[in-house]
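Sequence only, no structure available. Ideas?
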Amino acid sequence: MLKSHFRRFLDAEKGRLHFAAHSHHPWPDVTFEAQQQAWLDAARWADEKWEHLFGALIPEVQRQVAAELRLPSPGSLVFAPNTHELVVRLLSCLPDRPRLLTTDSEFHSFERQTRRLEEEGLVSIERVAVEPFPTFPERLLAAAAKGKPHLVFFSHVFFNSGFIVPEVTALAQALPSDALVCLDGYHGFCAVPTDLSGLAGRAFYLAGGYKYAMAGEGACFLHVPGSAGALRPRNTGWFAAFGALQEEQAGRVPYAEGGARFFGATFDPSGLYRLKAALRWRQAQGLSTAKTRAHAHALQRRFLGGLERGPISPEQLVVPEEDRRGQFLTFRTPEAKALSEALMKKRAITDARDDRLRFGFGPYQDEADVDAVLERLG
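Reply:
I predicted one. Tokens follow.
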């Protein structure tokens, strides 16, 4: 029972039922002290703050994230305030007018930016439909073989359905070897057990702390595979030059080794303080991703079992198979937005994407919360 560890969020509005962990996950109380520590360290270290951050804070968070994802080298991880910044930096590595292969279900950090580039004729994009789910991997591979993309970008868990891509390591490895591969893991990190050891040298992995890592905004990261060691992002900041000398001597803009070449510039580090605290707290509580997932799915089953007289039914689930579903339920209904707004008025927080209504679950909830949201839904 971990609900007591979220008292600051839960007590901020008595009676509010939050079922949108997939959107903005409540933060555990330990992150409050972490936020304060960021301020205190700024006062203590002053002009030496960045030496402290790169010498102590960032290496620890790198180790924590690498352990969660089973990455062999923490140094492959680079941080930024949001995933959009990292997406743009990755796109800036590609040749002029590159060919992109993606899906029709990617989140805005990638989808909006690439559509805008597409308007200007700066990129060529093919989007593979995610549905029907069973044939998605085969259709993605077929499109990659035919289109010869420079970059293949797809989600591990799709935001508008919760569908988990099966055999993701094998899928990424089967893509053309001359294409860069990036896996958007934001809805999988700390929600679906993820082992990237087999992809560490092949694929980029993008995620952050805003959702199931429970750390809030400002703490996103990119795993940079060893195969990308020669890339030189055009979108680059001064942090990417730390420790780099060889190219400078040759008259070229220098880059650091490993993932550090994808760093940007000065940012607010408080999100990394919260991420460190949240990941430490998970470890102290013995809260593995597998346990989080088991708890969330138990609540999902209780919720689905209580829908007999409600305005939605289990038959409307976009992903009915539990083992193929992430940590939220998505219902397809033309009343999605109206239902979400009606629940909001009853202070039951969900969200809607087009014709899809989403309910999220997490360790800050218990069975009584599920029963209460079912009552308000009814």
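The two ends are 27 Å apart (CA to CA).
Hope that gets you unstuck.
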